Amino acid sequence: MMTLKKTFVSNLVFSFGTQVVSIVVSLIMTLGIPKILNIQDFGFWQLFIFYSGFIGFFQLGLSDGMYLKYGGKQFELINKVIIKSEILYFLFFQIGMSLIIVIYLLFAELTYPRMYVLLAFSIYSIIGNLITWLGFLLLATNNIKRYSKSVLIEKLIFVILLLLIFLNNNFSLYSIIVIFIISKVFNLVYLMYLYESYSKIKVLSFKKTLRFIKSDISAGSVLMMSNIASTLILGIGRFTIDNKWGIEVFGKVSLALSATYFFLLLLNQISFSLFPMLRMIKLSSQQIILKSGSYLMSNLLMAIFVFYYPTVFFLKLWIPQYQESLDYLMVLMPICLFEGKMQMINTTYFKTLKKQNALFFINISVLALSIILTLISAYFFESIHAILFSMLICLTVRYIISYLFLIKIFNLKRDLQIVVELLMSTVFILSIWYFEPLISLIIYSSFFLLYIVITKKILIKEFRNLTKLKI
Question: What is the pTM for the complete model shown?
Answer without folding.
Answer: 0.83
